[in-house]
Write a structure and sequence with these properties.
Elements: E1 3-10, H1 14-23, E2 34-35, E3 41-45, H2 55-58, E4 61-66, H3 77-81, H4 87-92, E5 102-104, E6 107-110, H5 120-130, E7 136-144, E8 149-159, E9 162-164, E10 177-181, E11 184-188, H6 200-217, E12 221-225, H7 232-238, E13 244-251, H8 254-268, E14 280-283, E15 286-290, H9 293-296, E16 308-311, H10 317-324, E17 334-343, H11 347-357, E18 371-375, E19 380-389
Parallel strand pairs: 6-7, 12-13, 12-16, 13-15, 16-17
Antiparallel strand pairs: 1-3, 1-4, 2-3, 5-6, 7-8, 8-9, 10-11, 14-15, 17-19, 18-19
Helix pairs in contact: 6-7
Bound molecules: S-adenosylmethionine.
Protein backbone atom coordinates (compact mmCIF):
# COMPACT_ATOMS: atom_id res chain seq x y z
CA UNK A 1 0.00 0.00 0.00
CA UNK A 2 1.14 3.54 -0.83
CA UNK A 3 2.34 6.09 1.68
CA UNK A 4 -0.40 8.47 2.71
CA UNK A 5 -1.15 11.22 5.19
CA UNK A 6 -2.34 10.22 8.69
CA UNK A 7 -3.13 12.28 11.73
CA UNK A 8 -1.37 10.96 14.81
CA UNK A 9 -3.77 11.34 17.74
CA UNK A 10 -3.30 10.21 21.36
CA UNK A 11 -5.64 7.32 22.14
CA UNK A 12 -7.68 9.42 24.58
CA UNK A 13 -8.44 12.05 21.89
CA UNK A 14 -9.33 9.74 19.02
CA UNK A 15 -13.08 10.03 19.23
CA UNK A 16 -13.09 13.85 19.20
CA UNK A 17 -10.54 14.13 16.38
CA UNK A 18 -12.32 11.46 14.34
CA UNK A 19 -15.64 13.32 14.64
CA UNK A 20 -14.09 16.60 13.50
CA UNK A 21 -12.40 14.96 10.51
CA UNK A 22 -15.61 13.20 9.58
CA UNK A 23 -17.66 16.42 9.78
CA UNK A 24 -15.24 18.00 7.30
CA UNK A 25 -15.14 14.91 5.00
CA UNK A 26 -11.39 14.62 5.46
CA UNK A 27 -11.31 10.92 6.30
CA UNK A 28 -9.87 8.60 3.66
CA UNK A 29 -12.57 6.10 2.71
CA UNK A 30 -12.05 2.34 2.98
CA UNK A 31 -8.89 2.82 5.04
CA UNK A 32 -8.32 1.63 8.60
CA UNK A 33 -7.40 3.63 11.68
CA UNK A 34 -4.54 1.75 13.35
CA UNK A 35 -2.27 1.91 16.39
CA UNK A 36 1.14 3.58 16.37
CA UNK A 37 4.18 1.42 17.10
CA UNK A 38 4.22 2.15 20.84
CA UNK A 39 0.41 1.74 21.01
CA UNK A 40 -0.10 5.17 22.64
CA UNK A 41 -1.56 6.85 19.55
CA UNK A 42 -3.90 6.08 16.68
CA UNK A 43 -3.11 6.93 13.07
CA UNK A 44 -6.18 8.29 11.30
CA UNK A 45 -5.99 8.17 7.46
CA UNK A 46 -6.66 11.49 5.67
CA UNK A 47 -7.95 11.99 2.15
CA UNK A 48 -6.59 14.37 -0.48
CA UNK A 49 -9.17 17.03 0.41
CA UNK A 50 -7.82 17.41 3.91
CA UNK A 51 -5.95 20.76 4.14
CA UNK A 52 -3.27 21.57 6.65
CA UNK A 53 -4.97 20.99 9.96
CA UNK A 54 -7.00 23.89 11.32
CA UNK A 55 -6.45 25.25 14.80
CA UNK A 56 -8.59 22.78 16.66
CA UNK A 57 -6.59 19.86 15.17
CA UNK A 58 -3.26 21.62 14.91
CA UNK A 59 -2.00 20.12 18.13
CA UNK A 60 -1.80 16.71 16.39
CA UNK A 61 1.12 15.77 14.19
CA UNK A 62 0.66 14.67 10.60
CA UNK A 63 2.72 11.65 9.56
CA UNK A 64 3.27 10.00 6.23
CA UNK A 65 3.09 6.24 6.45
CA UNK A 66 1.72 3.20 4.65
CA UNK A 67 -2.08 3.09 4.71
CA UNK A 68 -4.05 -0.01 5.65
CA UNK A 69 -7.03 -0.96 3.51
CA UNK A 70 -10.30 -1.65 5.34
CA UNK A 71 -11.52 -4.97 3.95
CA UNK A 72 -14.42 -5.19 6.34
CA UNK A 73 -17.76 -4.78 4.67
CA UNK A 74 -20.56 -2.82 6.24
CA UNK A 75 -23.09 -5.53 6.99
CA UNK A 76 -25.98 -3.11 7.08
CA UNK A 77 -27.33 -3.43 3.56
CA UNK A 78 -29.37 -0.22 3.86
CA UNK A 79 -26.15 1.79 4.14
CA UNK A 80 -25.15 0.30 0.80
CA UNK A 81 -28.58 1.05 -0.65
CA UNK A 82 -28.25 4.68 0.42
CA UNK A 83 -25.23 5.00 -1.86
CA UNK A 84 -27.42 4.45 -4.93
CA UNK A 85 -30.87 5.73 -3.90
CA UNK A 86 -31.71 9.26 -2.72
CA UNK A 87 -32.51 9.63 0.94
CA UNK A 88 -35.91 11.08 0.06
CA UNK A 89 -36.90 7.89 -1.73
CA UNK A 90 -35.44 5.74 1.03
CA UNK A 91 -37.61 7.60 3.51
CA UNK A 92 -40.70 7.52 1.28
CA UNK A 93 -40.70 3.71 1.24
CA UNK A 94 -39.30 3.43 4.76
CA UNK A 95 -41.28 0.36 5.86
CA UNK A 96 -41.04 -1.47 2.54
CA UNK A 97 -37.31 -2.07 2.10
CA UNK A 98 -36.88 -5.83 2.61
CA UNK A 99 -35.27 -6.21 6.00
CA UNK A 100 -35.71 -9.97 6.19
CA UNK A 101 -34.36 -12.52 3.77
CA UNK A 102 -33.53 -16.19 3.62
CA UNK A 103 -30.04 -17.53 3.07
CA UNK A 104 -29.85 -20.84 1.21
CA UNK A 105 -26.22 -21.80 0.69
CA UNK A 106 -24.56 -18.90 -1.17
CA UNK A 107 -27.94 -17.56 -2.32
CA UNK A 108 -30.28 -15.05 -0.75
CA UNK A 109 -34.03 -15.13 -1.30
CA UNK A 110 -35.72 -11.81 -0.78
CA UNK A 111 -39.34 -10.74 -1.10
CA UNK A 112 -39.71 -7.31 -2.69
CA UNK A 113 -42.91 -5.35 -2.29
CA UNK A 114 -44.70 -4.41 -5.57
CA UNK A 115 -44.32 -0.72 -4.76
CA UNK A 116 -40.52 -0.83 -4.80
CA UNK A 117 -40.09 -3.46 -7.50
CA UNK A 118 -38.40 -0.85 -9.76
CA UNK A 119 -35.48 -0.80 -7.30
CA UNK A 120 -34.88 -4.57 -7.47
CA UNK A 121 -31.43 -4.24 -9.09
CA UNK A 122 -30.32 -1.68 -6.53
CA UNK A 123 -31.59 -3.85 -3.70
CA UNK A 124 -29.69 -6.82 -5.14
CA UNK A 125 -26.50 -4.78 -5.47
CA UNK A 126 -26.79 -3.49 -1.88
CA UNK A 127 -27.38 -7.00 -0.52
CA UNK A 128 -24.40 -8.35 -2.52
CA UNK A 129 -22.20 -5.48 -1.28
CA UNK A 130 -23.24 -6.10 2.31
CA UNK A 131 -22.63 -9.87 2.14
CA UNK A 132 -19.41 -10.51 0.22
CA UNK A 133 -19.82 -14.31 0.28
CA UNK A 134 -23.22 -14.21 -1.45
CA UNK A 135 -23.33 -15.34 -5.06
CA UNK A 136 -26.94 -15.03 -6.18
CA UNK A 137 -29.91 -12.85 -5.14
CA UNK A 138 -33.34 -14.21 -6.01
CA UNK A 139 -36.58 -12.31 -5.84
CA UNK A 140 -39.28 -14.41 -4.17
CA UNK A 141 -42.57 -14.45 -6.05
CA UNK A 142 -44.23 -16.89 -3.61
CA UNK A 143 -44.90 -20.62 -3.32
CA UNK A 144 -47.25 -22.13 -5.89
CA UNK A 145 -49.15 -25.25 -6.84
CA UNK A 146 -49.51 -28.67 -5.39
CA UNK A 147 -45.73 -29.15 -5.23
CA UNK A 148 -45.25 -25.91 -3.26
CA UNK A 149 -42.43 -24.72 -5.50
CA UNK A 150 -41.15 -21.20 -5.01
CA UNK A 151 -41.04 -18.98 -8.05
CA UNK A 152 -37.66 -17.30 -7.98
CA UNK A 153 -36.30 -14.60 -10.27
CA UNK A 154 -32.55 -13.86 -10.29
CA UNK A 155 -32.00 -10.13 -9.76
CA UNK A 156 -28.26 -10.02 -9.12
CA UNK A 157 -25.25 -12.28 -9.26
CA UNK A 158 -21.59 -12.07 -8.31
CA UNK A 159 -19.30 -13.63 -10.88
CA UNK A 160 -15.71 -13.57 -9.62
CA UNK A 161 -15.52 -9.96 -8.46
CA UNK A 162 -18.05 -8.55 -10.86
CA UNK A 163 -21.68 -7.87 -9.96
CA UNK A 164 -24.17 -8.44 -12.79
CA UNK A 165 -27.65 -6.97 -12.39
CA UNK A 166 -29.11 -7.12 -15.90
CA UNK A 167 -29.27 -9.82 -18.58
CA UNK A 168 -27.85 -12.24 -16.06
CA UNK A 169 -26.44 -15.24 -18.00
CA UNK A 170 -28.41 -18.39 -17.28
CA UNK A 171 -25.29 -20.36 -16.45
CA UNK A 172 -24.66 -18.04 -13.47
CA UNK A 173 -28.14 -18.65 -12.03
CA UNK A 174 -27.56 -22.17 -10.70
CA UNK A 175 -29.91 -22.73 -7.75
CA UNK A 176 -28.79 -26.23 -6.76
CA UNK A 177 -26.69 -25.69 -3.64
CA UNK A 178 -25.50 -27.41 -0.49
CA UNK A 179 -26.80 -26.12 2.83
CA UNK A 180 -25.15 -26.96 6.14
CA UNK A 181 -27.62 -27.69 8.92
CA UNK A 182 -26.78 -29.17 12.32
CA UNK A 183 -23.49 -30.50 11.01
CA UNK A 184 -25.08 -32.20 7.97
CA UNK A 185 -24.94 -31.21 4.34
CA UNK A 186 -28.30 -31.01 2.57
CA UNK A 187 -28.44 -30.70 -1.20
CA UNK A 188 -31.41 -28.62 -2.33
CA UNK A 189 -32.66 -26.64 -5.28
CA UNK A 190 -35.46 -24.30 -4.20
CA UNK A 191 -36.45 -23.52 -7.78
CA UNK A 192 -37.51 -27.13 -8.48
CA UNK A 193 -38.31 -28.59 -5.03
CA UNK A 194 -39.56 -26.99 -1.83
CA UNK A 195 -36.87 -26.14 0.71
CA UNK A 196 -36.75 -23.55 3.46
CA UNK A 197 -33.83 -22.93 5.79
CA UNK A 198 -36.31 -21.10 8.05
CA UNK A 199 -37.72 -24.47 9.13
CA UNK A 200 -34.47 -25.41 10.87
CA UNK A 201 -35.87 -24.62 14.33
CA UNK A 202 -38.96 -26.67 13.55
CA UNK A 203 -36.72 -29.60 12.61
CA UNK A 204 -34.76 -29.25 15.84
CA UNK A 205 -38.01 -29.37 17.78
CA UNK A 206 -39.04 -32.50 15.87
CA UNK A 207 -35.70 -34.06 16.79
CA UNK A 208 -36.33 -33.24 20.45
CA UNK A 209 -39.77 -34.89 20.32
CA UNK A 210 -38.40 -37.89 18.42
CA UNK A 211 -35.85 -38.50 21.16
CA UNK A 212 -38.62 -38.27 23.73
CA UNK A 213 -40.65 -40.83 21.78
CA UNK A 214 -37.66 -43.16 21.59
CA UNK A 215 -37.38 -42.93 25.37
CA UNK A 216 -41.06 -43.77 25.81
CA UNK A 217 -40.85 -46.74 23.44
CA UNK A 218 -37.44 -47.88 24.66
CA UNK A 219 -36.29 -48.62 21.09
CA UNK A 220 -35.27 -46.79 17.89
CA UNK A 221 -38.34 -45.33 16.21
CA UNK A 222 -39.95 -45.79 12.79
CA UNK A 223 -40.30 -42.49 10.98
CA UNK A 224 -42.84 -41.58 8.31
CA UNK A 225 -42.32 -38.38 6.28
CA UNK A 226 -44.74 -38.62 3.32
CA UNK A 227 -44.22 -34.94 2.31
CA UNK A 228 -40.45 -35.11 2.72
CA UNK A 229 -39.29 -32.79 -0.09
CA UNK A 230 -35.51 -33.16 -0.40
CA UNK A 231 -35.44 -34.72 3.09
CA UNK A 232 -34.30 -32.03 5.55
CA UNK A 233 -36.39 -33.39 8.45
CA UNK A 234 -35.09 -36.91 7.86
CA UNK A 235 -31.57 -35.48 7.81
CA UNK A 236 -31.64 -34.20 11.37
CA UNK A 237 -33.25 -37.42 12.66
CA UNK A 238 -30.72 -39.63 10.86
CA UNK A 239 -27.94 -37.54 12.33
CA UNK A 240 -28.83 -38.72 15.83
CA UNK A 241 -27.13 -42.05 16.59
CA UNK A 242 -29.51 -44.99 17.19
CA UNK A 243 -32.62 -42.82 17.03
CA UNK A 244 -34.24 -44.25 13.90
CA UNK A 245 -35.04 -47.73 12.64
CA UNK A 246 -37.24 -47.78 9.50
CA UNK A 247 -37.76 -44.63 7.49
CA UNK A 248 -40.49 -43.83 4.98
CA UNK A 249 -39.59 -40.72 2.97
CA UNK A 250 -41.69 -39.87 -0.07
CA UNK A 251 -42.94 -36.90 -2.02
CA UNK A 252 -45.18 -36.23 -5.00
CA UNK A 253 -42.48 -34.16 -6.71
CA UNK A 254 -40.05 -36.40 -8.68
CA UNK A 255 -37.46 -33.58 -8.71
CA UNK A 256 -37.53 -33.47 -4.91
CA UNK A 257 -37.06 -37.24 -4.78
CA UNK A 258 -34.12 -37.04 -7.23
CA UNK A 259 -32.38 -34.76 -4.76
CA UNK A 260 -33.58 -36.85 -1.80
CA UNK A 261 -31.78 -39.87 -3.33
CA UNK A 262 -28.61 -37.81 -3.70
CA UNK A 263 -28.91 -36.71 -0.07
CA UNK A 264 -29.65 -40.21 1.23
CA UNK A 265 -26.64 -41.62 -0.65
CA UNK A 266 -24.48 -39.27 1.40
CA UNK A 267 -26.28 -39.53 4.74
CA UNK A 268 -26.72 -43.30 4.58
CA UNK A 269 -23.32 -43.89 2.92
CA UNK A 270 -24.88 -46.33 0.46
CA UNK A 271 -26.16 -46.08 -3.07
CA UNK A 272 -29.58 -44.83 -4.14
CA UNK A 273 -30.78 -44.69 -7.76
CA UNK A 274 -29.51 -41.82 -9.95
CA UNK A 275 -33.05 -40.71 -10.67
CA UNK A 276 -36.30 -40.88 -8.76
CA UNK A 277 -38.71 -43.80 -9.03
CA UNK A 278 -41.95 -44.80 -7.37
CA UNK A 279 -41.88 -45.52 -3.67
CA UNK A 280 -40.27 -48.84 -2.82
CA UNK A 281 -38.09 -50.54 -0.23
CA UNK A 282 -34.60 -49.47 -1.36
CA UNK A 283 -33.08 -51.19 1.68
CA UNK A 284 -34.77 -53.27 4.40
CA UNK A 285 -35.11 -50.10 6.52
CA UNK A 286 -35.65 -47.50 3.79
CA UNK A 287 -39.00 -47.06 2.06
CA UNK A 288 -38.42 -44.14 -0.31
CA UNK A 289 -39.54 -42.67 -3.63
CA UNK A 290 -42.20 -40.70 -5.46
CA UNK A 291 -45.71 -41.11 -4.08
CA UNK A 292 -48.96 -39.39 -3.33
CA UNK A 293 -49.25 -39.52 0.45
CA UNK A 294 -52.92 -40.44 0.30
CA UNK A 295 -52.09 -43.45 -1.89
CA UNK A 296 -49.24 -44.49 0.42
CA UNK A 297 -51.71 -44.43 3.31
CA UNK A 298 -53.92 -46.95 1.51
CA UNK A 299 -51.16 -49.48 0.78
CA UNK A 300 -51.61 -52.37 3.19
CA UNK A 301 -47.85 -53.07 3.09
CA UNK A 302 -47.05 -49.64 4.41
CA UNK A 303 -49.79 -48.94 6.96
CA UNK A 304 -49.71 -49.45 10.74
CA UNK A 305 -45.91 -49.38 10.83
CA UNK A 306 -44.85 -45.89 11.93
CA UNK A 307 -44.20 -44.29 15.32
CA UNK A 308 -43.62 -40.71 14.18
CA UNK A 309 -45.71 -39.21 11.37
CA UNK A 310 -44.69 -35.81 9.98
CA UNK A 311 -47.24 -33.77 8.04
CA UNK A 312 -45.68 -30.78 6.41
CA UNK A 313 -48.22 -29.55 3.90
CA UNK A 314 -49.70 -26.81 6.09
CA UNK A 315 -52.51 -25.59 3.84
CA UNK A 316 -53.92 -29.12 3.52
CA UNK A 317 -53.12 -30.78 6.84
CA UNK A 318 -56.68 -30.81 8.19
CA UNK A 319 -58.06 -32.21 4.96
CA UNK A 320 -55.41 -34.94 4.67
CA UNK A 321 -55.00 -35.93 8.31
CA UNK A 322 -57.90 -38.46 8.43
CA UNK A 323 -56.51 -40.29 5.36
CA UNK A 324 -53.01 -40.49 6.83
CA UNK A 325 -53.93 -41.90 10.24
CA UNK A 326 -53.78 -45.56 9.13
CA UNK A 327 -50.01 -45.15 8.70
CA UNK A 328 -49.59 -44.90 12.49
CA UNK A 329 -48.58 -47.98 14.48
CA UNK A 330 -51.31 -48.01 17.13
CA UNK A 331 -49.85 -50.91 19.08
CA UNK A 332 -47.72 -48.47 21.05
CA UNK A 333 -47.56 -44.72 21.76
CA UNK A 334 -46.89 -42.60 18.71
CA UNK A 335 -46.52 -38.98 17.67
CA UNK A 336 -47.94 -36.85 14.89
CA UNK A 337 -46.08 -33.64 14.19
CA UNK A 338 -47.89 -31.29 11.84
CA UNK A 339 -48.18 -27.73 10.59
CA UNK A 340 -51.39 -25.91 9.74
CA UNK A 341 -52.18 -22.55 8.17
CA UNK A 342 -55.27 -21.11 9.77
CA UNK A 343 -56.99 -17.83 10.63
CA UNK A 344 -56.12 -16.78 14.15
CA UNK A 345 -59.81 -16.57 15.07
CA UNK A 346 -60.27 -20.23 14.08
CA UNK A 347 -57.48 -21.70 16.21
CA UNK A 348 -59.71 -22.78 19.09
CA UNK A 349 -62.23 -24.32 16.72
CA UNK A 350 -59.43 -26.16 14.85
CA UNK A 351 -58.08 -27.53 18.13
CA UNK A 352 -61.51 -29.11 18.69
CA UNK A 353 -61.57 -30.54 15.15
CA UNK A 354 -58.11 -32.05 15.69
CA UNK A 355 -59.33 -33.73 18.88
CA UNK A 356 -62.29 -35.14 16.97
CA UNK A 357 -60.20 -36.47 14.07
CA UNK A 358 -57.45 -38.00 16.18
CA UNK A 359 -57.65 -41.19 18.25
CA UNK A 360 -57.13 -41.10 22.04
CA UNK A 361 -54.22 -39.05 23.28
CA UNK A 362 -51.47 -40.58 25.40
CA UNK A 363 -52.50 -40.24 29.07
CA UNK A 364 -50.32 -37.69 30.83
CA UNK A 365 -49.12 -36.11 27.56
CA UNK A 366 -49.32 -32.38 26.92
CA UNK A 367 -52.74 -31.38 25.65
CA UNK A 368 -53.03 -30.97 21.92
CA UNK A 369 -53.20 -27.35 20.82
CA UNK A 370 -51.97 -25.33 17.88
CA UNK A 371 -49.00 -23.06 18.52
CA UNK A 372 -48.63 -19.97 16.36
CA UNK A 373 -45.18 -19.98 14.77
CA UNK A 374 -45.44 -16.91 12.56
CA UNK A 375 -47.75 -14.76 10.43
CA UNK A 376 -48.47 -16.26 7.04
CA UNK A 377 -50.45 -13.25 5.84
CA UNK A 378 -52.39 -10.41 7.43
CA UNK A 379 -55.12 -12.84 8.53
CA UNK A 380 -53.52 -16.28 8.43
CA UNK A 381 -51.14 -17.84 10.95
CA UNK A 382 -48.72 -20.70 10.46
CA UNK A 383 -49.14 -23.03 13.41
CA UNK A 384 -47.66 -26.33 14.47
CA UNK A 385 -48.87 -29.09 16.76
CA UNK A 386 -47.72 -32.33 18.37
CA UNK A 387 -50.24 -35.05 19.03
CA UNK A 388 -49.04 -37.80 21.37
CA UNK A 389 -51.26 -40.79 20.72
CA UNK A 390 -51.99 -43.64 23.09
C1 LIG B 1 -44.19 -27.53 2.41
S1 LIG B 1 -43.34 -28.74 1.47
C2 LIG B 1 -42.41 -29.57 2.74
C3 LIG B 1 -41.23 -30.34 2.22
C4 LIG B 1 -40.30 -30.88 3.31
N1 LIG B 1 -41.03 -31.64 4.29
C5 LIG B 1 -39.51 -29.78 3.94
O1 LIG B 1 -39.68 -29.50 5.14
O2 LIG B 1 -38.68 -29.18 3.25
C6 LIG B 1 -44.61 -29.88 1.07
C7 LIG B 1 -44.17 -31.02 0.17
O3 LIG B 1 -45.30 -31.88 -0.03
C8 LIG B 1 -45.26 -32.35 -1.36
N2 LIG B 1 -46.64 -32.78 -1.70
C9 LIG B 1 -47.71 -32.04 -2.03
N3 LIG B 1 -48.82 -32.81 -2.16
C10 LIG B 1 -48.43 -34.07 -1.90
C11 LIG B 1 -49.11 -35.32 -1.87
N4 LIG B 1 -50.41 -35.41 -2.11
N5 LIG B 1 -48.39 -36.41 -1.54
C12 LIG B 1 -47.07 -36.33 -1.28
N6 LIG B 1 -46.37 -35.19 -1.31
C13 LIG B 1 -47.05 -34.07 -1.61
C14 LIG B 1 -44.71 -31.22 -2.18
O4 LIG B 1 -44.12 -31.68 -3.36
C15 LIG B 1 -43.69 -30.60 -1.20
O5 LIG B 1 -42.41 -31.12 -1.40
Amino acid sequence: MNMMRHLKVPNSDVEGAFTKLKENNWLASNMLIFASENGKNRLIPLNNDAPEMPNNLLKYREVNCKGKIDNRVNPNWLNHLKKTIDNEIIEKYDELWPASHEFIGDMMIVRIDEEIIQFSSKIAKAKLDAHPKLRLILSDQGVFGELRIRELIPIGVRNNNQIILENIPLELCKTKVIVKESGREIICDPSIAYFSSKLQTERQETLYFAKKLKKILGRPINICDPFCGVGPAVSSLLNEPNLTHNILASDLNPEAVNILFENLSKWDKRKYPESSGNIDWMYPNRLVGVADATVVAKNKNYIGKWDLLMINLPHKTLELLPYLLPLIDNNSPSLIRGRIIIEESKIEYTNKILHEILPDLLPGSKSLSLKIKRDYSAKLRLCSFEAWLA
